[in-house]
Amino acid sequence: MRKIVLLCMLVPVLGMSQTKNVVSSNRVFPKIDKVLEFEKALTAHAQKYHTGDWKWRVFEIQSGPDFGGYQLVEGPNSWEQLDTRGNLGTEHNNDWNKSVAIYLTDRGSNMYSVFQDSLSTVQLTDYSDKINISHLIPKPGWGPELREGIKKFKKVWEDGGESIAVYQSNSSGPNEYAVVTRYKKGLKEKATGFRKPMKERYEAANGEDSWDDYYDMLKTCVESSWSELLFYRADLSSK
Description:
The protein is of the alpha+beta class and 239 residues long. The protein folds into 2 domains: 20-114, Alpha-Beta Plaits (2-Layer Sandwich); 117-226, 2-Layer Sandwich (Alpha-Beta Plaits), CATH 3.30.70. It is built from 8 helices and 8 strands, in the order αβαββααββααββααβ. An 8-stranded antiparallel β-barrel has the order 1-3-2-8-5-7-6-4.
């Protein structure tokens, strides 16, 4: 009986330690005259080596400073899984280097991000094919205030029926919050008039003149921000 009691006490701890809320986003940029060759090689590589826990969702970046690049999203996984992942073996590495990387430029990046359930209005794996990512980088020491500022939008998004997934970067350069709008109904959600003006909706949720307070928060807390559109490429992704 004592063993059973101890096991029951450990179950919640084990459950928490295995939370799958970490995603890896690898950005690559093919040579402008080798895009077709790159896409063919990437598809073959993903379908052969990136399955199960390591499957890829591939996005083509449609706008912003990384236009022309591709985002390879792996996960969600737990930190424990990533700790024991390794490099997937010599065969995998040789295939990437000799079949895919030969079509890439030297430009690239990788970021680990942790899904923020308390700030989001959608489940982590409730995806859409078209997304907007707003990157928010706080000034040093102002991260908690920016988080609270984002939190005030949750009710606004919920009331507007918006599918928003929020991530926080981890061990990946400057601290960053990524607010991902998942356009479940397509880009028509961006059109003027599809929803009420944001200021009106924000003040309905947070009180009169709160929109001015929001802008004051941005001026105080945010070092830089930018946004981009990405389209999911099912044909390039893991099956």
